[in-house]
Amino acid sequence: MPLIPVVPENHSHVLAEFDCLDPLLSALRLDSGRLKCTCLAVSRKWLALGTSAGGLHLIQREGWKQRLILTHKEGSITQVACCPHDEDFIAVSTSQGLVAVWELQLERRGRPERVSVSWEHRGQSITALCWDTSTLRVFVGDSGGKVSFLRAGSSKLGKGSAFVIFPVQTVTTVDSRVVQLGYQDGRLLVSSLSRCYLCDTDREKFWRVGNKERDGEYGACFFPQNKGLLLGQPPLLYCARPGSRIWEASFNGEVLSTHQFKQLLACPPLPLITYRNEPNYNPMHKSPQSVAFPKLLYLGDQNLLTWTESAIYIFTPQNGQVLLWSEVKDLVDVAVYRSELFCLHGSGHLSHLSLLSAERCVERLLRRESWSLAAAVCCMFQHAVTISRARKSVPIDRLEHLRSQLSSSTDLELIGQLEEVISKLEPLDSASSSRRSSISSHESFNVLDCGIYRVISRRGSQSDEETGSLINPSTSEEERLKEFSFVQEDDQGDHGKNSIFSTSKRSDQGLQFHLPLSFRPKPPRIALQAVKDSVSSFVKKTTEKINTLQMNSELFQRPEFREGGQAEISATASPYSEEMENEVYDEISNTEADMQELRLATERAISQIQDPLVLLDPVCLGEALLDWLPTLERILGPAEDYINTTDSAENVVSNGSPPEPVRVASPKPVPPDLLTNLTELATLYTELSCFRNQNEQTLGCLTFLRRYFFLLDQERVRRMCLLCYQEQPEMKSSFMEAMLGPTLILKLLDLLNLRKFAMSFSRLYEKHGEAAVRSFSQFYPTITPADVMTMAQQSHFLAYLDNLVQSRAEEHRLSFLQSLLESESLRQDWLELALTHDAPQHCDTMTPDGQPRWHSHCFSWGYGRLLALLIRLPADFSSKQKMAETCRSHGYWTGYLYLCSELQRRTEAFSTICQLDDISLLEEPDGVEPQTLDEWKLLIQLSQQCSHAADSEQVTGVNGSSWSNGSADCGGKISPENLTLMLARTAGPDRALEVLEDCGVQLVLSPHSRLVCELLRVTEKRQRAMIQTMLERCDRFLWSQHA
To answer: Where does it reside (predicted)?
Structure first.
């Protein structure tokens, strides 16, 4: 056997075939030339195979046993789809345009039957079927562009549902043939030959995804975001484009970015691991591939699958990389379930593939005793097998046993390669697991007899003698860095500003701390090249920077001083003298040494932080950062006279002196790669010192923020200030001061193209007050509620927040308000703020003893809409209790009743309703209606107790005429008679009178109430007679069917 080439380290997964489905096809007689498999679908329980003779074979995946065959006389099967939420239903389409939904009835051991049939697409070729994710509804697309849906009746839906025939409805008709359908959370995705359309089937709204058309078969699919930090986020859309491109769009159809895979597919294909032949990997690179992706499918854990006639492609769109692509011949269709692929080939045979990591593939091959194939995968994916975490799947003794099973006569070279792999294995319980940070993921080691760990680099530089190997690893690193690229090309016109990529924002969303776990030092050649580039451009940048600073200072001068400053600017902008050039070159040499020293200190700190024992221990983490801090202070810190003139910011502020100014620009040019690492360390130091509140540290959090703001991640610092603004308000004020600085304002102007407005942001508020604040809602998310809260008064901030929330669609307001709450404490703060501004008088809503006044819930609250949303936000039990007490203390009875219902405090709710004396609070959709007879008894007793107090309060007129604001909408009184009528409508008049007697209430019904009770008795008798008649007819119908 020739030597097996090694796969590059960026490949960690394979497609493997462990099962052979040929015996299954032979048993079904689908391997003959007369009868072939035409389509397939897969679910957790079934493998469904449609045939050219109109038969649908249902294979139970457990044991690969055939359970059912469903026959159709309307032609061959063209499409099949399994219901994702109820595997007892399956939809099929035939070549004559028939669509049928079958109910298998396996649980009740009945015969399968067609529960719904549609001839809406008669004469057309049906090209796509798609199930609703929550109801028994199937969407159908055909070659003419028509999209319809049919519902399936079933006895599972309730009595009589099986006899209801639902009409077939047409959703829309697009401009060309339907290629693929997808459904998620109430929205239907339609991909045609020319466009992608998004349909809201409930509201009958339609959107086009993107602006550019296409011509050909291109698929589209939903991409759920239900993992980790993305849990609860709406799904994304992915739509195929010409030239190996894929659009990424939001759930509203707005194109966010374009992923370009043409250059990334220039890598060689990974071999298919199969028992049919030996894996063959050719490391020679191919030319870039321009592929049309006919369908897109969501696969496994956040992966995207597509295929052509000759290859399968799997992408990870969240980071824009190709997970793998493998050559597979004669592909016709692919069905997926989780990480499993079922492929239908043109010859009619099936293949069952699994996507899994290389070490898991080796483990399964060892269990199947495929010794040669397992050894070949080990040698091919050495980087995945040798790392320590792979010992859980592939222990060392299993690999040694594998070596003993190979034949020394036929597999001699394979044995040699496997022994080399075994020598590089990292033990699971060795020091490598605790020192993982100090050893790169591209290196392994073995333990010598003397106890020394010998590090083996796989990059090419293995000894001090190989000095010439420095070029090779740097070149491979540069190529590796070029692999991650999103190319927008000509699709930028499709979506304008939305095509700006923001992967860091997506990954950091929801984190209080961003702990950098993936630091990796750059190779020496790249580091030297960065220093060389910074030195070569230093003189040129110095002149440009001085001119830029002069222009910025002129921009922020008052108008009366600009004319006098012209001479100074022109004099400063004159060319350098020869003496100044000599000073600049002296400064260049000093800058080189300083940057190199800072780089070494930064890389040393990063290597320490990579150790989990250091990273997860605040004390050790603080010590590592304090060791790095002096180097940063000496090289990028302020001058000594600057430090002497100002003490630490905390002491200066306490003494009443002004704090030191915020530095928003670096005093020296910093290479980009070094600046990235400095930003991570500086932000981590700021967060650690802020939340731990250590006064004994060398440099306080506030001082560090003001001195090194140019190094910090502004988004993370903003979130930190929101979390600690109550304990440390000076942190937030310093952050806002820095954000309003000249340099950052200019960046904001370029981003928004609103230079005049941003320059007068504070002046607008000072001049126009609340009217200016309300207008800021149109500039969200650039101007956030946190910014307005810092600048504006509380009453003005409420107006801004209410206007911002109401600007969204009604169905999106609650989720949007929840997204604004970056800190859970803000919910309570905003609730108390809304309850204390533009609210009714306290004496109008509550009695002196703290009880609700009669009809006091009818008062209008200035921010009632905002309050209704705030109390409906998701929260834990303790937060809900606190919100309920807040609503009660302020007399906001509508919100108090809603929260009592949420907290199951029904007795308190009934007592409050009786004191408010409004029966509509029991009848409204959000009302608290009694659910048991005991609750009805309690409510009747409470109504008796409160009736006298309510009458006296209404007569004395405590509320006066003030409650007329909205009181016209209040309902009737709560009295035992009205409650009895309500109970009679629910449980019947006889039962209601029995409950009244049990409560000991002596009540004489009025003539109107007696008439209502008599009508309810007559209606109840007629309903019982009608139900009996329907049951008898159904019984006769069922007996006739059995006969």
So the answer is: Cytoplasm, Cytosol
Count how many Cα atoms sit within 13 Å of the Cα of residue 737 in the half-sphere of its side chain. Answer: 17
Q: DSSP code of 425?
A: P
Number of Cβ within a 10 Å radius of residue 206: 16
| pLDDT tens, residue by residue, 399-444 | 999 999 998 888 888 899 999 999 998 887 544 444 443 444 444 4
* DSSP code of residue 852: B
CA distances from 319 to 238, 296, 388, 441, 515 (A): 14, 17, 25, 19, 19
Is 293 exposed, middle or buried (CB count within 10 Å of its CB: 0-12, 13-18, 19+)? buried
CA dist 994 and 977 (Å) reads: 13
Task: Name the burial class of residue 922, with classes exposed (0-12), middle (13-18) and buried (19+) by CB atoms within 10 angstroms of its CB.
Answer: buried
pLDDT (average), residues 661-677: 83
Render 812-852 in DSSP notation, one character per residue.
GHHHHHHHH-SSTHHHHHHHHHHHHSS---HHHHB-TTSPB
Mean pLDDT for 360-368 is: 93
- Length of the chain, in residues: 1043
Within a 13 Å sphere around the CA of 1027, how many CA atoms are in the beta-carbon half? 7
- The model's pTM is 0.47
- 432 exposed, middle or buried (CB, 10 Å; 0-12, 13-18, 19+)? buried
**Joined tokens for residue 69:** 């065959």
DSSP 846: B
Report the Cα–Cα distance between both ends of the chain, in Å, rounded. Answer: 71
Q: Which residues of 140-169 are buried (b: 16+ CB within 10 A; e: fewer)?
A: bbbbebbbbbbbbbbebeeeeebeeebebe
Give the CA radius of gyration of the chain: 36
Tokens of 190: 């339609």
Q: Which helix (H) or strand (E) holds 173?
A: strand 169-173
Which residue pairs, CB below 8 angstroms and at least 24 apart, start in 547-553? 547/573, 552/742, 552/743, 552/746
Please, what is the angle between helix 893-902 and helix 877-890, to 10°? 160
Half-sphere exposure of 441 (CA within 13 A, CB side): 11
Around 570, how many Cα atoms within 13 Å sit in the side-chain half-sphere?
6
Q: How far is CA 631 from CA 402, 602, 619, 702, 824, in A?
A: 52, 9, 20, 19, 38
At 76 the three-state DSSP class reads: coil
- Compute CA 308 distance to the chain's CA centroid, rounded to the nearest angstrom: 29
DSSP reduced 3-state for 422 = helix
Rounded CA-CA distance 209/970 in Å is 47
Contact predicate 38/47, CB 8 Å = no
438-462 pLDDT per residue, tens: 444 444 444 444 445 455 444 433 3
In Å, what is the CA distance from 325 to each residue of 11, 306, 709, 757, 974? 10, 10, 45, 51, 71
Say which DSSP state 195 is in.
-
Asked if 627 contacts 603 with a C-beta cutoff of 8 angstroms, the reply is no
What distance lies between CA 595 and its chain's CA centroid? 39
Q: What are the structure tokens assigned to 136, written together?
A: 């028994």
**Residue type present at position 45:** K
The mean per-residue pLDDT over the stretch 86-94 comes to: 94
Give pLDDT, residue 463: 35
632 compared with 249, residue with greater pLDDT: 249
Given a contact cutoff of 8 angstroms between Cβ atoms, the answer to whether 854 and 954 are in contact is yes
Alpha-carbon gap, residue 786 to 717, rounded angstroms:
13
DSSP-derived pairing of the beta strands 77-82 and 89-94: antiparallel
From residue 960, alpha-carbon distances to 300, 695, 847, 919, 964 in Å are: 67, 58, 14, 22, 9
**Interior CA angle at 320 toward 318 and 325, to 5°?**
110
3-state secondary structure of 436: coil
- Please report, as a single letter, which amino acid is at residue 74: E
Distance of CA 245 to the CA centre of its chain: 22
* pLDDT single digits (tens) 592-650: 788 888 888 898 888 888 888 888 888 888 888 888 888 888 888 876 544 444 444 34
Residue with tokens 């309003």: 740
